[in-house]
Amino acid sequence: MFADVSGSSALYKRVGNEQAKAIIDEAVHFMTAITIVNEGTVVKTIGDEIMARFNEGYQACEAAVAIQRRCVREPHLKDLGIRIGIAYGDVLITHNDVFGDRVNDAACVAHIARANQIVITQSVVDSLGSSLKRDCQMFDRINIKGETEHTLIYRLEWENSGKDNRATMVMPIHDLASFVE
User: Fold this and answer.
1) Which tens digit of pLDDT belongs to each residue from 87-104?
2) Bridge-based pairing state of the strands 81-86 and 92-93
């Protein structure tokens, strides 16, 4: 999982260096704490971003949802957004880092996510139980770096907005055909 503070450059300009740094440090601190509470390990922090690993896909998703909910609850963090990307599968773990295709996939989908979004790969969806799967919406088909085939990615819906987000969903062609008939 990669969780990145979005809007930090604008924050520095708006409130100044010291206050912006304090707000971003707080965000990184609570993302770290939520990761640990959800049985994850923070591999490293990279500026205003954390890289974490979990044993199970649902743990990463639950941590990501908790991070997003915490960010919108805090009045001084509302102008920031957290972009989160998650992939699931085998990785190479060393004493202080994690490497492999799934790490690259998580970084890729984190960069696709917009502020306040959680974007996940098919491998994550496949690892989830039915309750979390219901919150996954097809989002796009992309070429992940190094792959020749398009990969389906999903958005993990964490807000109870009641909105219909189909405008930003990718639908399989057979689903589209039923609308035409």
Assistant:
1) 999 999 998 899 999 999
2) unpaired
Q: Render pLDDT for 59-95 as a digit per residue (tens, 0 to 9).
A: 999 999 999 999 888 877 777 889 999 999 999 999 8
113, 105 contact by CB (below 8 A)? no
Rounded to an integer, what distance in angstroms lies between the CA atom of residue 142 and that of residue 1?
18
Give the helix/strand (H/E) hosting 139. strand 136-142
Distances (CA, A) of 49 to 17, 24, 30, 77, 149: 18, 9, 12, 15, 29
Q: How many CA atoms lie within 13 A of 181 on its CB side?
A: 6
CA-to-CA dists, residue 115 to 11, 47, 118, 164, angstroms: 14, 17, 9, 19
Q: What's the start-to-end Cα distance of the chain, in Å?
A: 41
pTM, 2 dp = 0.83
CB 2, CB 49: distance < 8 Å: yes
Q: Which of helix, strand or coil describes residue 111?
A: helix
Q: Which residue, chain included where needed, has tokens 């990969």?
A: 151
